Amino acid sequence: MSVTKICGIETEYGIHHVGGEGNPVASSSLLVNAYVADLARAGWDFEDETPGNDARGFAREGALPPEVETHLVNAVLTNGARYYVDHAHPEFSTPECADPLEAVLYDKAGEEVLRRSMAAAGRLLPPGQSIVVYKNNSDGKGNSYGTHENYLMDRAVPFARIAHLITPHFVTRQVFTGAGKVGSETPGSSGRDIWYQLSQRSEFFEEEIGLETTLKRPIVNTRDEPHADPQRYRRLHVIVGDANLAEVATFLKLGTTALVLSLIEDDAFGSLDLTLANPVKAIRQVSYDPTLRSTVELADGRSATALSVQWELYGLARKYAEDRGLAVLGDDGVGHEVLRQWEEVLSGLETDPVTVAGKVDWAAKLQLLEGYRQRHGLDWDDHRLAAVDLQYHDLRPERSLFARLDTEHLVGREEVTAAVTEPPRRTRAYFRGQCLRRWGSAVASANWDSLVFDLGTDPLRRVPMMDPLRGTADHVEDLLRASNSPEDLLARLSG
Amino acid sequence: MAERELKRKPQTAPREETAPEETEAPASGQGEKLKAELDDLLDEIDEVLEENAEEFVRNYVQKGGE
Q1: Three-state SS across A463-475?
Q2: Known catalytic residue: A86?
Q3: Which pLDDT does position A46 carry in this prediction?
Q4: Rounded distance between C-alpha atoms, residue A62 and residue A58, angstroms
Q5: Among A52, A127, A380, A390, which residue has the least CB neighbours within 10 Å?
Q6: Is A49 a residue whose pLDDT tops 70?
Q7: What percentage of chain A reaches a pLDDT higher than 70?
Q8: Smallest Cβ distance to B57: which of A89, A375, A390?
Q9: Is A87 within 8 Å of B16 when comparing Cβ atoms?
């Protein structure tokens, strides 16, 4: 049975320290610290009032996720998000979102957090230095960093079945999720053969399925870390996507994937078999063809364009919606909006990708590149085109090329500003964020599935949050309002 | 070699009846407007693009992540 598709996005940002010493870990730490320090001054942080709480909380409880490198910065924000340094990049993980549209909102709030961080870092750095952040997934030199999606799933569905049925979607959805890239980074290929491709990430994938995320990247990642009750839930960790700036692209990336996962959970594929003969080969073939005309081979011997595979999945999802409704994507029409945008984008791509340049990053970027190339009579290997590509993703308003485009907006600017500090109302992120807002100094550590309070008396008090669908505003808003203090809250929770 | 092709668009995905203005090609006036907008955009790119493109691109080196 399909479960509500709680979802979220983790984005590792590219970082360049102008005038710095070239240590990306130090620069990333400075960037994140600058933001968190600014918050402390504004009064919403969880430091200062009881110095030492963080360290003791981390040490005693070990409550933070295992991959955390605890010597690096790691903050949980009042909007329920996590903001930290992962390896050599600043990373923003959205809070758990109730539907794909809310995920777009918090993804955009993440961009705003990074912009504010750049400004805060600029105030700390000596003259001539600045830190610049890029929302992309590759440096053009063979190094890739990730944008991951997460979806809540029913634990009862066998993983092998999920992996088998989702793979054709992961290979072909790049026709609208691709962020576009000039040239190729696959050894042996040259930019002259592949002048432009759909995806930043696709050519970094070497396996069909596996646990790795940094080497031999697999199309389906098997990390099994539900951050929720493991008897009931699975968190599907998706590493095969690009970071999108276009809001419709993010919306469709999450929305179509959530829908196809629901089809899998509800066994709604019927006799449709889209199994690919060679997914690893196919993901490159699709990325390398901005004309969208080339075909990939299916396991049964047929061939198919990426668009035709997407039309099949769309048709199936539409039928599913008619038969069962789309409550799994929220009850306020978001699921139907996913279907509408999906159909519109596939039709547009079929006619001419330029028609969806306001919705799809690779099409928007290609239009810019073609215009610039023709104006200046440039060959595709000209550095200025690589610069246009890179600067498309620059988050500084004064430099961003994306920001200059007239793209379609799904979320309002004021909503985004609110989402920088306020948590989603329909997931457990509400409880996490509100507790941090109200009683930050009493929260020793926060994790996806628990909060640890330090009330100054031993022992620390741990509040588990094993169900992402509980701890919502509906559940706890009155409780939080009635509680005068964290002591009061904990007494009411255990009472 | 594959001999059969997946249908371009399946029967299960009938196209919505589209409003006439969506199916008509853009009027030439609108086409010119779009071209003018793109020209303005390209002017802006000329202004804001990093001056030394080669150095800018070369200096952008990241460590792999995830």
Answers
A1: EECCCCCCCCHHH
A2: yes
A3: 36
A4: 5
A5: A127
A6: no
A7: 93
A8: A390
A9: no
Q: Which of A45, A86, A107, A242 is catalytic?
A: A86
Q: Which residue of A has its CA nearest to B62?
A: A139
Residues in chain A: 495
Domain chopping of chain A, boundaries: 7-416
> pTM score, two decimals?
0.90
CATH 3.30.590 fits A7-416, yes or no: yes
pLDDT in tens, B6-48: 765 544 444 444 444 444 444 567 778 778 888 999 999 999 9
Check: CB of residue A204 under 8 Å from CB of residue A315: no
Asked whether the ipTM of the predicted complex exceeds the cut of 0.90, the reply is: no
Out of A217, A308, A404, the one facing B8 most closely (by C-beta) is A308
Distance CA A277, CA A427 (A): 39
Bridge partners for A303 per DSSP: A297, B5
**Nearest Cβ partner of A401 from B2, B45, B64?**
B45
What residue in A sits closest to B36 (Cα-Cα)? A371
Distance (Å, whole) CA A149 – CA B27: 40
For chain B, the distance separating the N- and C-terminal CA atoms, rounded to the nearest angstrom, is 38
Residue in chain A lying closest to B47 (CA): A399
- What is the 3-state composition of chain A as percent helix, strand, coil, each rounded to the nearest 5? 45, 15, 40
- Kindly list the residues from chain B whose CB atom is less than 8 angstroms away from the CB atom of residue A146: 65-66
pLDDT digits (tens, 9 = 90+) for A68-97: 344 567 889 999 999 999 889 999 999 999
